[in-house]
Amino acid sequence: MAFFNRHARTHLLVPLSLALAAGAAAAEGLRYPEAPKSDVVEEYPGGRIADPYRWLEDLNAAETKAWVAAQNVVTFGFLEKLPQRAAIRRRLTELQDYPRVSLPLREAGRIFYRRNSGLQKQAPLYVRDSLSGEPSLLIDPNALSPDGSISLAQWSPSPDGRYLAYALSEGGADWAEVHLREVATGKDLPDLVRWFRFSDISWTKDGQGFFYARYPEPPKGEALSAELRDHQVWYHRAGTPQAQDRLIYWRKELPKYFVGAGVTDDGRYLIVTLNNGTDPRNRLFLADLGDPRQPDVTAPVVPIVDEDIAELTVLANDGPVLFARTDLNAPRRRVVAIDTRAKTPPAAWPTIVPESPNALESAVVAGRKLFAQYLVDVKSEVRIFGLDGKSQGTLALPGIVTVAGMSGREKVDELFYVVTSALYPSTVFRYDFGTKASAPFDAARPPFDPDRYETRQVFYPSKDGTRIPMFITSRKGLVLDGSHPAWLYGYGGFAISLTPTYRPQLPAWLEMGGIYAQPSLRGGAEYGEDWHRAGMLDKKQNVFDDFIAAAEYLIREKYTTAARLAIEGGSNGGLLVGAAMTQRPELFGAAIPEVGVLDMLRYERFTGGAAWAVEYGSAQDPKQFPYLRAYSPLHNLKAGTCYPPTLILTNDHDDRVVPSHSYKFAAALQAAQGCDKPVLLRVETQTSHGYRPTDKLIEERADILAFMAQQLGAGKAGATGAPAAGSGMNVR
């Protein structure tokens, strides 16, 4: 079992009007909503910086809401006229309409999982008594809100199978409320746990309560924007009000740290972790709960490592000995044993599985075996070890794929895992220890023929000569003549590995004659922690250089041309797109930054933004301000420059990357645009950073593809193929 590790109102010089203004350019006949400039100037270590659109940070202000509504009128008016939009939406609806399941969890002998029949807004939660048993519906989130605005964010059954704790969030926001349901009756208890965020739900072995993490209640009206401080671990006993919950762990002197808690599989220990924001290095603590049948939740939490020296992810335990994945003295990670009875210094912990030339991406213990997923040039390989570290072979995978998740219990001889690739939908397999064979848990068969297409891996040099891998998916027999519309997607940050993954909109793009390219940029963890650190803080420009070099490669090798190349990315990837399009506007035929971090001087002032300072740096630091100012997309727009056609997307309930990033960037870009190429802002309602119900997801994807198709000149949508019959594993 793995444990996870000021806003002020600004006076406007002129009143906001819903009248549409011409702006810098009449982009394709568009007239953008007027965005008045204020006289706000802020002092930074590097000097005074104007912030004319500061007023758009007030998400609750009538002026902001009116401006956003007017932007949506312009944007949707433009999108509705795109000739392929309706056909693309129909095709995406077809491609989305297939049954699919989540990674199962076995608890109390039962199998819990989510399954979407195809076009349901959200996947209901089911339980089976056995592999061959009939599924029983536990929770249908579609019944909670017909429009999908209330999402089932998390769930955890109690060890005895009596209760199900489940978290609901409004619009998919990070804030959630935890409820308790009796599994046998389907009835909810009156329990309600509020201000739950960035947390697991981890039950004590007696099934009487669970540990969770929460923040103090934010100021009224500021839940979506207030800075997050003082993450704390609490214990909730079933059937009691939250006011009686017990505070378990809180480090007052570390207000910006994230804290996590999880109970070991045997119920004996509580593992507590502390992370300085998004830094993968964490501190590690333990509480001995005693007899799992009568756990002592008041047991003291004692330190194992109380400094930020390395990543320490506990995988399992054998009594007082913990098995943990770490990058301590091993940037590509290894597995160590930690005897909690001893005072052994971390450098002397015995190695169970040594560091490999390949990055150890994830690991899980199932049936007393360690399943370790490595990335071999960004392709998954799962190696099997005993808890003594002896090799027991590899897990046979269905072709060259990404292993997107693994699930198992320490004393149950089975492993569930998810595989996917650009042409292979996420499919759950179950590995049987007896037969050493895998079989699909519930095979996914979408309505397209993957054998018409292939994915190839290439390598190209970045600006400084670093070798960067990239996967390119296209139809077979592609002629490299520069005629193809291409879609370049990237991320590059936070030690998140970007591996080949199925996206339901991809077949539609391929059917239109498009190419899809996905490079693994520095800032991720594809080659371990060194790869991550080569793309963070003052080295962040490496990430943008890697992405720009990918575009140049596609053009140089005649996959496409600049006029037919679109770039897309979300969150940190939205920053990537914003930086690339401001640094090299002539290189791209379209740009789609989604929920992007676009104001690098003020990002840390809102919600969890302060947690990202370990990755980006802080504009308040004299040494870090210069490089943040140098690439901040908002601050590098130049009036009169011809920027590529741009579709900026955000969500009104995004409490991770607040929508004001996109609002300010859109206003500034519309004012700066020096040609007639459109700059559009699309704001979705009742959705958040990573959540959209299926219908809204289809609409959003259709708008993105229709925008790209129009700007790049892609072929017609709806050229359907036969239902999937092949492997979809064509990789070379």
List the uncertain runs: 1-26, 720-732
Largest sheet properties: 8 strands, mixed
Shape: globular
The number of strands is 41
Which percent bin holds the helix content? 10-25%
Number of helices: 11
Average pLDDT:
92
Specify Rg, calculated over alpha carbons.
Answer: 25 Å
Distance between the termini: 35 Å
Strand order of the largest sheet: 34-35-37-36-38-39-40-41
Beta percentage is: 25-35%
**Class from helix and strand fractions:** alpha+beta
Mind explaining what this structure looks like?
- The strands form 10 sheets. This protein has an 8-stranded mixed β-sheet with strand order 34-35-37-36-38-39-40-41, with helices on both faces.
- It is an alpha+beta fold.
- A hairpin with a 4-residue loop joins strand 28 and strand 29 (391-394).
- The chain starts with 19 loop residues before the first strand and ends in a 20-residue tail after the last helix.
- 16% of the residues lie in helices and 32% in strands.
- Residues 1-26 and 720-732 have low confidence and may be disordered.
Map the helices and strands:
Blueprint: E1 20-21, E2 32-33, E3 41-44, E4 47-50, H1 62-80, H2 85-96, E5 100-101, E6 105-107, E7 110-116, E8 125-128, E9 136-139, H3 141-144, E10 150-157, E11 163-170, E12 176-182, E13 188-196, E14 202-203, E15 209-214, E16 232-237, E17 246-249, E18 257-263, E19 269-276, E20 282-288, E21 302-305, E22 312-318, E23 321-326, E24 334-339, E25 351-353, E26 359-366, E27 369-376, E28 379-386, E29 391-394, E30 402-407, E31 414-421, E32 424-432, E33 437-440, E34 453-461, E35 467-475, E36 486-489, H4 506-511, E37 515-519, H5 529-533, H6 541-556, E38 565-570, H7 572-583, E39 590-594, H8 613-616, H9 625-631, E40 646-651, H10 660-672, E41 679-684, H11 694-712
Parallel strand pairs: 36-37, 36-38, 38-39, 39-40, 40-41
Antiparallel strand pairs: 1-2, 3-4, 5-7, 6-7, 7-8, 8-9, 10-11, 11-12, 12-13, 14-15, 15-16, 16-17, 18-19, 19-20, 20-21, 22-23, 23-24, 24-25, 26-27, 27-28, 28-29, 30-31, 31-32, 32-33, 34-35, 35-37
Helix pairs in contact: 2-11, 6-7
